[in-house]
Design a protein that fits this description.
The chain has about 350 residues and is an alpha/beta fold. It contains ten helices and 15 strands. Helix 3 packs across helix 4. The radius of gyration is 21 Å and the shape is globular.
Amino acid sequence: MKQTIAFLGKGGTGTTTLALASAYQAHLQGKKTLFVTQEAAFSVSEILGHPVGKETSTLSEGFDAIQVSATDLLEKGWNKVRSLEGQYLKTPFFKDIYGQELGVLPGFDEFNILILLKDWHVKYDLIVLDLASPLATLRLLSAADQLGWYVRRFQELFKRSPLGQALGPFLEPLAQTVLAAGLSGDKIRSSGSQLVDLIEEARKASEQEVTLYLVANQDALTLSSARRYWGAGQLFNLRYGGVLLNRVPDVTEAMLKAFPGLEHHVLPEVSEWQGLVKYLPPIKRTKDLPAPIQLDEKALTLSVHLPGYSKKEVELSQYGPELTLRVADQRRNLILPSAFRNKQATGAKFSEDRLVLTFG
């Protein structure tokens, strides 16, 4: 099974070193592994003792690394889009638009990483992401959900427009290119509905193939930050493999209570990053955790696991059957089942790190 893993922790907790060690561990186990970093190339190259640049470099047979930048991602991804248009449009109009010009579009860089992830997963068993920040990683993994919201909102308006009619034959191949391998290719009702369904399949693939690890140490701020990264990922149904307590001399009760249900792994301080390999847990998800998002159609309640957040940070809005949850700077859109139709949220409370909404 193809896998992607990433480490979420406040700066200084050692996420890059842990990502490198995990990639090396997988390589030693015989997995074809790619380490992807947005860190400055010289810093990662210094750690590895091997140059890492904008093109894939081989560290050892079956173990590669690449350093990506927003500008390069925009250009590479956009070149793929432009190469497709000639196959589906009689009069191409993207050919004179360059990737850098699209940098102002929110989320476009994340979609270009998705394009590259599709290509990388053809070759590699494991991809280890070390992006610029935990929020950058979460934005990437929630990109399909965000795009789905815009498509659902505007697909009818777009389909009726001259641009939508011109792009109709182009939408499905574009979506398949951007939104990863393994999509079914089933014939669906129309180009707009087809795109919505393709995005939904891509969102499910992200949930199934990505495992996240939280990283913290004895500093209370790293613990509270990791809890918020946990909650932000749970909002999008992302799954976690556990908590890595890095360079922690003594495990305290506060550390254990901060992440109920997740497996804890204590890692000692080592002189060389390769020394972490023997202490790292195998890549797997913590089992038997309650579903992050739960619906009770009889009680008409919806609950979301949001550790690290408070009720005052949550905003709700409803548009027909769609419920939008805005939690701090994260937003998730949920389509409510038929039992909730024509019902409005009448109450909200936090209980044991879960936001519980009541409808009536």
